[in-house]
Amino acid sequence: MQSRAFSGLVVIGLLTLVYFIAGKFGLMLASLHASASPVWPPAGIALGALLVLGYRAWPAIFVGAFLVNVTTEGNVATSLAVASGNTLEAVCGAWLVNRFAGGTTVFDRPQGVFKFALAAVVSTIISPAFGVTSLALAGFADWTNYGAIWLTWWLGDTTGDLLVAPLIILWSIASKRRWNRSEAVEAGILLLLLFVLSEAVFCGWLTIPARNYPFPFVIFGPIAIWTAFRFAQRETATGIFILSAFAIWGTMHGFGPFVGETKNQSLLSLQSWTTVLTITAMALSAGMAERGRAEEALRESEARINLAANAAKLGLWFWNIQNDELWVTEQWRRLFGFAESEPVSFDRVLQVVHPEDRARTKQLVQQMFESSGGDYENEYRITRPDGSTRWMAGHGSVELDERGKPAFARGVSRDITLRKHAEEELLESEARFRAMADTAPVMIWLSGPNKLCIFFNKGWLDFTG
Known about the structure:
Layout: H1 2-27, H2 41-53, H3 58-70, H4 76-100, H5 110-123, H6 126-137, H7 146-172, H8 181-202, H9 214-230, H10 233-252, H11 263-311, E1 314-320, E2 325-328, H12 330-336, H13 346-352, H14 355-370, E3 374-383, E4 389-400, E5 406-415, H15 417-439, E6 445-447, E7 453-456, H16 458-464
Antiparallel strand pairs: 1-2, 1-5, 3-4, 4-5, 6-7
């Protein structure tokens, strides 16, 4: 118990230190006001820490924020107010994400990404409201600049949430991805390309006119899309963070398309672009991850269906009637003698139906098309590639589209050859018994369990008339 408490204190202490260092770095970029920076990583650190560690980590945020501000601008009272606002902002943001966006699984779906962005936008209103107001009341901020300082503070916190919190959350979750050599090479090429383009755009390699906003989207948009489509959310968030670091450094040194009249205006423009790019890339990545999970679930479902169908010796099929595309299970192919890669269509299936049953089967399908859907059954023979004849029983149903036309059909096929042979042998046995009974010189009758007669031979019928 003591070791657990000690480890908790160590985590709190490390989080406080990280918050303090990140806060000092952020305030190095402040120009409009010493306490308001358009680049504020501590906001994302705080939100990510509360989502990963839980609300018990709030003292680290409070202490770290207090130390950052008390050593920068204002007095103890304003520093306490700012620290309270920063802490309350992180707690509120974490509560919103946990309550409405799925907590640490927020980046699993595109809807979660947008909810996370909305939670960041809403919760970051709290800190500038506390901070700018307390500084203005204490005389450390000019009321005439209240709106500009407030906007700078809010946008810095919002961007910090969107850039840093995803990194903390995604890297705290064990990855299920198993990298192979080709993926590692592709990731290396992508990272190298990101470095080269970042150097070219934000480090002075290319001369780009200021305010040329579409240029970064044209250059880095494909990179973000490539990362989102080919890799997971973790890699996407990391790539955006690296790009943002290059962009901030370049903009502060007067390079790139976001350079404006003042450093604060330049960074505000850059952070607005980063926000849009981050939300777009993370939503695309989440969408691809969701699609991957759906495909994996579909493969698992098909595997389970195949396993159950194989165990029951049932062949399952699904027919897209409009496109004449048939999806069949492995067991169905074995029943009908189709090769694994052989294409299957209705006309191709008709070719293996026994000639004596082909017209009846085709007529049944035609009646199915003309009816209003429903279920159907059919027993027919097929001729397998080895020349053998097998009896099949088909059970299926038809689904209609919005115009009332047959759109899909699904069903199951099973081999009933043994049953048919048993029925034929039973009929032959009954015929032999009847022939023997009719020629016997005695009267024969049979009754069932209910004492009712079920058979009379010819002698009995002739005698009784």
